[in-house]
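Feature request disguised as a bug report, sorry. It would help if multi-protein outputs had a clear separator. Right now it looks like this:
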Amino acid sequence: MVAELEASLKVSSVEVEKIKAVADEQAKTVGAEKEIVDAQAEKANVESEKCAVIAVNVANEMASVQADLDQALPAVERAETALAGL
């Protein structure tokens, strides 16, 4: 009986070592893939920051252009009125 338990324990131990080896390999793969994902996430964050700056610049330029247009429209309307009177 004890001999059977020892034999069973040895078999189980071998199986556990095989499973542990597979798990270790998977952990290495996951670790390597995580490093790749982290690097890509950092690049994405940098690009996101650049896009935010561009968006602010575009919004400022749009506001400036709209102000110029609002200022020019009365002159255009006066010119159209003057042309209509000719």
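(second protein starts here, but nothing in the output says so)
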Amino acid sequence: MSEEKPTIALVIDDEVQIRRLLRLTLEANGYKVYEAATGQDGLLEAAQRRPEVVVLDLGLPDLDGVTVLNGCANGAVCPCWCCPCATATRTKSPRWTTARTTT
């Protein structure tokens, strides 16, 4: 009986806490997880690892996430589709404001 290969996931986010949370969650669900803290490192990891799933922060420090997404798609690294998710922070006012968008 052969063992099934785990699905490879790549998490590209500059915030270590988010990478850690996503790693724990994905690994608990059977994924093999690789990480990158910058867009450039993410493109290198994507080319080397050939992930089937990429979780991408659109607000990276070196490249914007759309550039990284286009790099993955143009290099045919993996099938790409985008599902933006917003995170929020509390300001002095009682209203919640969007701080950054991650994918």
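Even a blank line would do. Unrelated, but nice: The chain has one domain: 8-102.
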